[in-house]
């Protein structure tokens, strides 16, 4: 009988993290390495459950930022630190770039667009997000997955891309491009709608909405549900929504 061949086992490096079991800080850093995966799960959950255009735009920017990291790593082809057994190139750090994009974009969104939140909450959320992103980035150095330069470059790229993407989404909201008479010949594609209105029109097939920047969705949805227990009608739900918008 022929000898049975067993192929060598491989490790799923997406969640595989090396750390020092005798070092508690190293263990914490290993858990911090899973932050990007947790954020992707959160993105996907919110995208499916809420269908908010702001979430979908931020998620799209996050994925685009990851694509940029993939390209940059193959351009630089710089190895990880010698004491690290991880796979792939190290320049720039994808973890640092990921959390930097998330922290900067989310902070800008909360501070500039979440008008229903009080100022102190917006400041607190923004500062906490940035601090957390720095901690996650530094953990990559502590675990020897990246050099300081690789982390610094990754974080810088993430910040720049977040600023650019936030600027793009801000422009997308206010531009009259696509509207009848705006030029550039886009009227045939958009049907005379502004780009933002056209985006919402196209995505209505999957029930995408644009409420997150104007109302506290958690409170509004609870109020509608609570009223529904007493036989709420559609008009009452609209009234509650308009009242919530006035509170911002």
Low-confidence stretches: none
In this structure, how is the largest beta sheet organized? Answer: none
Strand content: under 5%
How many β-strand stretches? 0
**H/E element order:** HHHHHHHHHH
Global structural class = mainly alpha
**Helical coverage, percent range:** 55-70%
Radius of gyration: 23 Å
Total helical elements:
10
Measured between the Cα atoms of the first and last residue, the distance is 77 Å
Q: Output mean pLDDT.
A: 82
Structural shape: globular
Using brief descriptors, characterize the structure shown:
mainly alpha; transmembrane; 63% helix; 10 helices; 248 residues
Can you describe this structure?
Pfam families: PAP2. It is found in: Endoplasmic reticulum membrane; Membrane. The chain crosses the membrane at residues 25-46, 92-111, 123-143, 149-168. Belongs to the dolichyldiphosphatase family. Keywords: Endoplasmic reticulum, Hydrolase, Membrane, Transmembrane, Transmembrane helix. The protein is mostly helical. It is built from 10 helices and no strands. The chain is globular.
Topology:
Layout: H1 24-32, H2 35-50, H3 53-76, H4 94-112, H5 119-142, H6 148-174, H7 187-190, H8 195-203, H9 217-228, H10 234-246
Quick description:
The chain is mainly alpha-helical and 248 residues long. It contains ten helices and no strands.
